[in-house]
Write a structure and sequence with these properties.
The chain is of the alpha+beta class. The chain is built from 17 helices and 26 strands.
């Protein structure tokens, strides 16, 4: 079936549901920080069901996310961290809700030859299935028609999202994951819908080209379905996620850049399969670049992923260069963080993670690692991994991450609009809060005022925005920066501004320590600050908040600003060292602490950037989708978005 015809069928077959009424939810013009997860899989995803034995369905996932106790493998499971404010179940669009029908012996899949093969061989057949479903070509599962099962599964996904939406308390989004792989390189995107209806999913079976996904979003938007795409795990994209060329190998031009910027305003900067911020080899002068590294392909742990073009900081620099050349920036991203867990349970706490399983209830019996590796690792053994490599692959993943948004209210409309305008931030799982505003004339005492947030929205742009044209008298941009610790977490170590700019046609970077706890100062000779200290007791896997600060704030001016060079700035907030999940797990299992992964980590948060463009004609809305420009301005309430 041709792509355009399939899109028309998908739009015509959209399932309409009743819209939730959010009219009575209070609205705060200063905006509140809400935390959520926009990337989670249930038993409706083929890999979650086959590899991880997932039994939680979308309804169970939403119940757990909002704080309910759920039944999992015959036990009652409780959350370790507070309930989420918002959430999206993003099951793979390819044969969504199909493989779990193997539990019904009379389902079309159960009666098929490939279904029988899956039942007999389990995870050993996963590699074959992954190639079928993520390789394009327009063909589904061989020898069986599962379209009715997939349609039913998608309708249940929509129903669950709408059923558990509680405006003002718990926001849910209709969503799915488009799962394209190019020669093993990850190009996945999560698709998030704004409203209570959605057409049939676009899948990588129909096309593995991101441009086709964006065109699909353009088409359905004209039909009344507003949605955006969010790429993730660029660290495993082998340089393709932020390449200099399109999927056909042609240099990126203005049309491509504008299409991409209009349909994927956000990128997932960190999740359980590693951080995609940067890597030590890309940022050798960044002493904190070595964080939750995962530098190989998802489908082959022996194959390294090319670093250039695979990391968000690198993409920010490439975007500046492409904008200078084409007039548009395809990589003008806000950032989010997620879990990408595959057992239907979203919990970002370190003590609620035990490796590849996903989230757990830390008060219950621990999963059997050896049994898991034996049952789900056979497809990796076929790749030639040794037992030691299989064992390490269980421990290299990080715990769940979170998305933060600054929104007027906890509703679909308000949170989605925050996503669109990129007033978002990511954390490695902690619930620290931070704000980041940029302008040309912020007073040094701004943060001492009671109404500083109101003043900042009035005279500056928040994270995700563009600095307005530079006034003639201004020497450099100034940034108002504020952060407060997670009430249940670790103290803060420092605030850093990461700057990326163009110099002689190439992008370069620098990390500035702009606020340090405990009265520390940056050494004038080395340019580095002394470490905050480490209070972690490895024998008990605990730490003390006897160092660090509960909050940090500053107004910072770029000391190396050049008005002729485009630049991008984003905030990174570091906590003091705490035990990594693998250290906590070693204590529980009465095992030695592993030496091949860090024993401690510094949890952190990343803000969406603020951009500076020398051209006075540039505005924050230039690269926005036409249907979103006015909505974005209205959402800002005249609050300083330019």
């Amino acid at each position: 079936m041709r792509l355009n015809r399939w899109i028309a069928v998908a739009v015509a077959g959209a399932m309409l549901t009743a819209a939730a009424d959010a009219a009575d939810v209070p609205s705060d013009p200063q905006r509140n920080a809400y935390f959520g997860d926009l990337h989670l899989h249930t038993s409706y995803s083929f890999d979650a069901y086959i590899l991880f034995g997932a039994k939680i369905d979308p309804e169970g996932a939403y119940r757990f996310g909002r704080g309910d106790t759920v039944s999992y493998l015959g036990d009652d499971i409780h959350r370790s961290s507070p309930p989420l404010d918002f959430m999206a179940v993003t099951d793979h669009s390819e044969n969504i809700g199909v493989f779990n029908t193997l539990e019904d012996p009379n389902s079309p899949l159960s009666r098929s030859e490939i279904g029988k093969e899956v039942k007999a061989q389990g995870s050993a057949v996963f590699g074959k299935l992954a190639k079928i479903q993520t390789g394009g070509g327009g063909k589904g599962l061989p020898g069986v028609d599962v379209s009715e099962s997939a349609q039913s599964g998608w309708q249940r996904e929509i129903k669950a999202a709408n059923q558990y939406y509680q405006p003002g308390k718990f926001t849910t989004f209709i969503a799915y994951e488009w799962t394209a792989m190019t020669d093993g390189a990850n190009l996945h995107r999560n698709v998030i819908f704004r409203g209570d209806k959605a057409p049939n999913p676009f899948t990588s079976i129909h096309s593995t080209k991101p441009e086709d996904l964006w065109n699909f979003l353009e088409i359905i938007r004209k039909q009344g379905y507003e949605a955006l795409a969010i790429p993730h795990n660029s660290n495993a994209s082998n340089g393709l996620m932020f390449d200099w060329v399109d999927s056909r190998g042609r240099p990126i031009d203005q049309a491509y850049a504008e299409l991409r910027a209009a349909n994927e305003p956000l990128v997932e900067i960190s999740q359980n399969k590693g951080s995609s911020d940067t890597a030590p080899a890309l940022s050798p002068n960044d002493e904190f670049a070595n964080f939750e590294r995962y530098e190989h392909l998802l489908v082959d742990a022996r194959a390294p992923s090319k670093l250039e073009g695979s990391y968000v900081r690198d993409a920010f620099g490439r975007g500046l260069a492409l904008e200078e050349r084409t007039g548009a920036n395809p990589f003008k991203y806000g950032v989010i963080g997620s879990s990408d867990f595959h057992n239907g349970l979203s919990d970002a706490a370190e003590n609620a993670f035990v490796g590849t399983f996903g989230a757990i209830d830390p008060t219950k019996k621990l999963p059997d690692v050896d049994q898991f590796i034996k049952s789900s690792g056979s497809w990796r053994k076929d790749q030639g991994l040794t037992d030691a490599q299989l064992d390490y692959s269980f421990y290299e993943n990080g715990s769940g991450n979170l998305t933060g948004v600054w929104a007027e209210q906890n509703t679909r409309e308000s949170i989605y609009d925050a996503l669109r305008r990129k007033e978002t931030f990511a954390t490695s799982g902690t619930r620290l809060k931070f704000r980041f505003f940029g302008s040309w004339d912020l007073p040094a005492d701004l943060l001492k005022r009671k109404d500083w947030v109101t003043a900042a929205y009035r005279s500056a742009v928040p994270m995700g925005g563009d600095l307005p044209a530079k006034p003639e008298p201004a020497s450099a941009p100034t940034f108002a920066i504020w952060a407060v610790k997670d009430p249940n977490g670790a103290n803060l170590d420092r605030l850093q501004v990461v700057k990326v700019w163009l110099e002689n046609g190439k992008h370069t970077e620098k990390v500035f320590d702009v606020a340090l706890s405990n009265g520390r100062k940056v050494d004038a000779k080395t340019g580095k600050a002394p470490a905050v200290g480490n209070t972690v007791d490895l024998e008990t896997a605990t730490y003390k908040n006897s160092v660090g600060a509960t909050s940090l704030a500053t107004v910072w001016r770029d000391p190396q600003f050049d008005a002729n060079r485009p630049a991008v700035y984003y905030l990174r907030v570091l906590e003091i060292p705490t035990p990594r999940w693998s250290t906590i797990l070693a204590l529980k299992r009465h095992q030695p602490i592993r030496t091949d992964v860090p024993a401690t980590l510094q949890e952190r948060g990343w803000s969406s950037p603020i951009w500076y463009t020398p051209s006075a004609e540039r505005t924050a809305s230039k690269d926005a989708h036409p249907t979103q420009r006015q909505a974005g301005l209205e959402a800002s309430g005249g609050s300083g978005l330019r």
